[in-house]
Design brief:
This protein is of the alpha/beta class and about 325 residues long. The chain has 11 helices and 13 strands. It has helices at about 40-50, 75-80, 95, 105-115, 120-135, 140-145, 150-165, 180-200, 210-215, 235-240, 245-250, and strands spanning about 5-10, 15-25, 30-35, 55-60, 60-65, 70, 85-90, 170-175, 200-205, 220-225, 225-235, 300-305, 310. It has an 8-stranded mixed sheet, sandwiched between helices. Strands 1, 2, 4, 5 and 6 form a 5-stranded antiparallel sheet that branches. Helix 4 (about 105-115) crosses helix 5 (about 120-135). The longest helix is centred in the middle third of the chain and has 18 residues, at about 180-200. The protein starts with a strand and ends with a strand. Bound molecules: adenosine-5'-triphosphate, iron/sulfur cluster and magnesium ion (MG). Adenosine-5'-triphosphate binds next to helix 1.
Length: about 325
């Protein structure tokens, strides 16, 4: 496994927020993570990258990535992992790039961090190769650009070039296309898929759009208010969701509700319960239409069938 996480919990100012996440990612695999805003998707990614802010703390029984024990990693291990075996790209590439530095400076920095000892001329040649790899035309001229001179799609391509400079084994793409229009979104997802196929890297793709996950991922895990509530093969989960929350997400997709064309889109009533709020029983209870007395108990992940790795956090 490239990533193995067992019982990951995250506390914000001492209050439980992310609760007992167990999941894995195999080499070359795309794991899709889906859930509404505020479910804790980014917080989990930040924990995996060792980037949680002050006041936010993670603990786990096991957290291993690229053969490194993250629970015991020191500052040197983290430096080697970030921008080395693990890389992350974010929702808004414009805010992730330094506005004061040219593309060349920033891209060369990533290349040199990954390959210490490389000459600056070779780093420039590598930067050009990377720009070409991510589909940026006139790479030589683009190296001289500042971030404000780039379109959103171009900036995300440059972020991807910086992320793949170190040939990572695991890339975490946290809502990489949310800020882009649909055409550019499709191009960026296609680019990530090509790079994954060429390099064999594994990808964690986070999105609140289950359609994007269906298109790109092998497996999916659905998050709700700090917990995984369903996981399994992406095709199976979307074709026949077990958990009422997943069912709601799927039905909210245009064309998926089974209603006639031009009907109002189905929605999930209410909003995500704040991640640090304590709830008795199932955390989805206040929004669920299938509740009975069993929902008053906390729910654990249950296998859909003995020979299946599909799991759902619901007694039904
Ligand atoms: N630095 C922080 N300090 C305190 N609370 C935080 C911090 N970052 C996030 N939170 C809380 O944790 C919740 C989950 O945040 P997170 O960013 O992981 O959600 P998300 O699922 O990635 O949402 P989105 O889809 O909007 O990116 C937030 O709603 C917020 O209440
Ligand atoms: S346990 Fe109950 S409240 Fe929770 S998702 Fe299942 S039916 Fe709904
Ligand atoms: Mg997020």
């Amino acid at each position: 496994m490239i990533l193995s996480v067992k019982n990951l919990s995250i506390e914000i100012d001492g209050k439980p927020a992310v609760r007992g996440l167990t999941f894995y990612v195999a080499a070359g695999e795309v794991l899709g993570v889906v859930g509404e805003s505020g479910c804790g998707k980014s917080m989990v990614n930040m924990a995996l990258m060792g980037l949680l802010p002050d006041g936010v703390n993670a603990s786990a029984e096991q957290m291993e990535a690229c053969s490194v024990d993250l629970l015991r990693a020191g500052p040197r291990d983290w430096r080697a992992l970030r921008g080395g075996k693990m890389a992350m790209i974010f929702q808004n590439p414009m805010s992730a790039l330094n506005p004061c530095l040219t593309v060349e400076r920033q891209l060369k920095e990533s290349v040199l961090q990954a390959r210490t000892g490389m000459s600056r001329a070779s780093a420039r040649a590598e930067a050009l190769r990377l720009l070409d790899r991510v589909g940026i035309a006139h790479a030589g001229a683009r190296l001289k650009s500042y971030p404000h001179e780039l379109s959103g799609g171009m900036a995300q391509r440059i972020m991807i070039a910086m992320a793949v400079a170190s040939a990572p084994q695991l890339m975490i793409a946290d809502e990489p296309t949310t800020a882009l229009d649909v055409t550019v979104q499709a191009q960026i997802l296609q680019l990530l898929e090509e790079i994954r196929r060429d390099t064999g890297m594994a990808l964690i793709l986070v999105s609140h759009d289950i359609g994007v996950i269906e298109q790109c991922a092998h497996r999916v895990q659905v998050m709700y208010s700090g917990q995984i509530v369903e996981s399994g093969d992406v095709g199976e989960v979307i074709a026949s969701p077990c958990h009422p929350y997943t069912r709601g997400l799927v039905a909210a997709q245009p064309g998926r509700s089974g209603l006639p064309p031009k009907s109002r889109l189905t929605t999930i009533d209410g909003s995500v319960i704040p991640i640090t709020e304590e709830v008795e029983g199932c955390r989805f209870r206040l929004r669920c239409s299938r509740t009975d007395h069993r929902c008053e108990q906390p729910q654990r992940m249950r296998r859909a069938a003995a020979n299946s790795y599909r799991e759902s956090r619901c007694h039904w």
